[in-house]
User: Which sequence fits this backbone?
């Protein structure tokens, strides 16, 4: 799956989870600052990512996942 | 410990800076916490470092911030502190039961905010929670043995807020955005 496809899928998942317009989500969008997500939203998002792509997010990975692009890159590196 | 609470979006440095100045005034007036001889340059223009646990580079005051769905809390203390605020909403039981054992939504949010407050207290952040329930409970027990107290703070209807600190005295101050 290309990184672009991953990002598009991720964007849709985030938009549905947070009930926001997906066109407002870019790779540079910060999950907490930009999307207004709180920590619980972020954790749920990462669990959705784990389920969607059958990957594991370790505790040491979490700190580096600030933007939507960071998450897409992370997924691309794990599948 | 003084906790400011109010309406606001994601924590901004400006928000923290304004509350720090109020904190300095209040500790003098209320004779609690650090005593500030005057409102110094460091208080008016604190430098916030977010590399690791957020802290002031030019002040010994400790702080912790949390926001959730339009509201925020900021705790200040002269000793380490962690605070978490969550809007109570329906959660995916199947997903979150992987992380935490809970009996109801209310039980979940009490436990979640406690774990997050401890995560912020230690500076480990959310990764603390991803470490697994056994690890979380072990670290929680160690922290509480060291004297860290978990206190539920009633700030907003429909929200749960928990603070982690070795201080028992807590003063709540409503913050109005100017």
Assistant:
């Amino acid at each position: 799956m290309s990184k672009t496809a991953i990002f598009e899928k991720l964007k849709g998942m985030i938009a549905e989870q947070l009930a926001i317009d997906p066109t407002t989500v870019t790779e540079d969008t910060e999950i907490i600052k930009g999307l207004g997500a709180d920590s619980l939203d972020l954790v749920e998002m990462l669990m959705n990512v784990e389920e969607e792509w059958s990957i594991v997010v370790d505790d040491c990975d979490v700190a580096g996942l600030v933007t939507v692009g960071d998450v897409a890159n992370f997924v691309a590196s794990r599948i | 410990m003084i906790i400011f609470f109010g309406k606001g979006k994601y924590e901004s440095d400006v928000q923290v800076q304004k509350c720090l100045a109020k904190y300095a005034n209040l500790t003098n007036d209320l004779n609690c916490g650090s005593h500030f001889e005057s409102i110094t340059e460091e208080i008016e223009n604190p430098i916030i470092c977010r590399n690791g646990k957020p802290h002031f580079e030019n002040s010994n005051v400790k702080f912790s911030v949390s926001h959730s769905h339009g509201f925020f809390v900021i705790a200040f203390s002269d000793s380490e502190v962690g605070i978490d605020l969550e809007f109570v909403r329906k959660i995916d039981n199947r997903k979150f039961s992987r992380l935490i054992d809970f009996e109801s939504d209310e039980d979940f949010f009490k436990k979640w905010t406690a774990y997050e407050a401890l995560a912020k207290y230690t500076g480990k952040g959310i990764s603390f929670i991803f470490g697994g329930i056994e690890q979380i409970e072990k670290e929680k027990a160690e922290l509480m043995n060291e004297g860290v107290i978990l206190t539920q703070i009633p700030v907003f209807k429909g929200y749960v807020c928990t603070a982690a600190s070795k201080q028992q005295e807590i003063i709540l101050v409503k913050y109005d955005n100017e």
The helical segments of chain B are 13-30, 41-44, 93-96, 105-122, 127-130, 133-145. Chain B has a mean pLDDT of 85. DSSP finds six helices and nine strands in chain B. Strands of chain B lie at 2-7, 48-49, 55-56, 62-68, 71-77, 81-87, 149-152, 159-165, 171-174.
